[in-house]
Amino acid sequence: MVTAVYPGSFDPATYGHLDVIRRASISFDKVIIGVLHNSAKSPLFSAEERVNILRNALCDLKNVEVKSFEGLSVNFARENHAHFILRGLRAVTDFEYELQMAQTNRVLAPDIDTMFMTTSLEYAYLSSTIMKEVASFNGDISKFAPPEITRAVIEKLQAVKSSK
Ligand code: PNS
Hints:
By secondary structure, the protein is of the alpha/beta class. Helix content is 45%, strand content 19%. The chain has a single domain (3-162), classed as HUPs (Rossmann fold, 3-Layer(aba) Sandwich). It contains 6 helices and 5 strands; from the N terminus they run βαβαβαβαβαα. The protein has a 5-stranded parallel sheet, with helices on both faces. The structure holds 4'-phosphopantetheine.
């Protein structure tokens, strides 16, 4: 049984994340997505909301689970008996940060390897941050994520705006 964990912020998931997860679900027996609950960051969506968004978007994939976690990704991997940490690579600009993380994780947990999947070309430019920025200026985000997610982004941004 080859299990990979895919840790990330997923605030919220984009087509780029979903593409990596769908492809990984073919290569690994089990993929466990770890949504980072980090009290130091202030994400748009709560960890619970980000987990639910991913669960709904991936409910057809029987070997994919979504959980939230706090602390180190290597500990999340260990707790879930995973030997691999999965990360998506979009462009060379991701590489330095990803390499540093992978090497740090390898020092912390030599028994856990990081595997990178290159994002499909059509999503190479895409990030949750870009999607939220475009939405905040009322731009069209329909090419960035499925309708349930884009709707959630627009509603959440409206709620944040009206609470100010
Ligand atoms: O989606 P992101 O924000 O690029 O994901 C970053 C994430 C969550 C993978 C990274 O910040 C992380 O692993 N955080 C948990 C803390 C940790 O393990 N740090 C050591 C690795 S440098």
